[in-house]
Write a structure and sequence with these properties.
Length: 337
């Protein structure tokens, strides 16, 4: 489709509900003995290093706080970014409490275990933090995308092989290397060691018992047979995490806030034809009283049939900032290199 034809089709935009979310954020903050910060990820968003820079912008805006309550809703992302996230937050507050009304998974679990306390609602869960890795040499799936490989899966293949082995059977790695490159296996093993180390550092930010820190870090990485296994409040307590039920009123209001964020995070895709489209989607949101920052993916997509995949084009994605000043809303773009 040519440019003139595309211009005749109005691009869809996701709703930005700053007024509505601010009202709820202020209502919840008034019921807490600290400052409420919100960190929300779309299912297609994730914890990443740029989020740490945005958190810095947010913290600089509101200043140092005695106690911070962090509403977290995320499916995870980069564990190293989680460590930076918690380290930065602790430089602006003496006490940090995680509020988890819904999923707080993987790298988000890492953020939560860095808190002095985790408050969980009836729908909340943490997860294991064992590492899976998509490497440049990872196997390719039927859609021509790289496959994520986890150390737990590799260990289970080897264990099953050895349980069924006979004297005539060859070394299992010899056959495994036909499907998974040796460098991928090495990278996954290193990533697993990194994950345990990250958990140790996060727990040590508020715990002194080294044996408990080592045990919790190890169990979060090796105990569960599924990366997405839901760790509910009782299981979190058995692990040794400081976890308590959330106030039902606060939980209900956070669920209402999640509905507003979910509306903001809906896909707004404009299809021009079978191979050309434009996508606008809000992936990550930070918010505190008086300020909201969100990352909006804003780009053209082209389907390359020979490769059976969509290609990004004309990427204008950016962080956008909304501030309430003197009863008026000021909008700007937050530039992050």
């Amino acid at each position: 489709m040519d440019d003139q034809a595309q211009q005749t089709i109005q691009e869809k935009q996701p709703p930005v509900l700053f007024k509505e979310t601010q009202q709820l954020v202020r209502q919840i903050s008034a019921q807490l003995d600290g400052t409420l910060l919100c960190y929300w990820n779309n299912p297609r968003g994730e914890v990443c290093h740029n989020d740490v820079l945005v958190l810095y912008e947010l913290l600089e805006s509101i200043g140092r706080q005695e106690k911070v309550y962090l509403f977290i809703k995320s499916n995870g992302g980069n564990g190293k970014a989680s460590l930076r996230f918690v380290n930065l937050l602790r430089q602006y507050t003496q006490r940090f409490i995680a509020l988890a009304p819904l999923e707080c998974a993987s790298a988000a679990t890492m953020i939560a275990i860095g808190a002095d306390q985790i408050q969980m609602g009836p729908l909340a869960y943490l997860t294991a933090v064992d590492t899976s890795l998509t490497h440049d040499l990872s196997p390719i799936d039927r859609d021509n995308d790289r496959v994520s490989v986890s150390l737990d899966e590799l260990k289970r293949v080897i264990r099953l092989w050895r349980e069924e082995k006979s004297d005539s059977m060859e070394n299992p790695f010899k056959s495994l290397y036909q499907y998974v490159h040796p460098l991928v296996i090495g990278a996954v093993d290193r990533a697993d060691s990194l994950s345990i180390m990250l958990c140790r550092e996060l727990l040590a930010s508020h715990m002194d018992d080294e044996s408990a820190i080592e045990r919790i870090a190890s169990e979060l990485n090796t105990k569960y047979p599924s990366h997405s296994y839901p760790i509910l409040i009782d299981e979190a307590r058995r692990l040794g995490l400081k976890t308590d039920p959330m106030d039902p009123r606060i939980n209900q209001q956070l669920l209402q806030l999640n509905k507003l964020y979910s509306e903001m995070g809906q896909k707004a895709t404009t299809d021009y034809d079978d191979t050309h489209a434009h996508g606008n989607e809000i992936l990550n949101i930070f918010e505190a009283p008086g300020i909201q920052l969100y990352f909006q993916q804003d780009m053209d997509w082209f389907y390359r049939e020979q490769e059976r995949r969509w290609i990004r084009m004309n990427d204008n994605s950016s962080w956008r900032k909304l501030e309430s000043i003197g009863g008026k809303t000021r909008r700007s773009v937050l530039h992050i290199a």
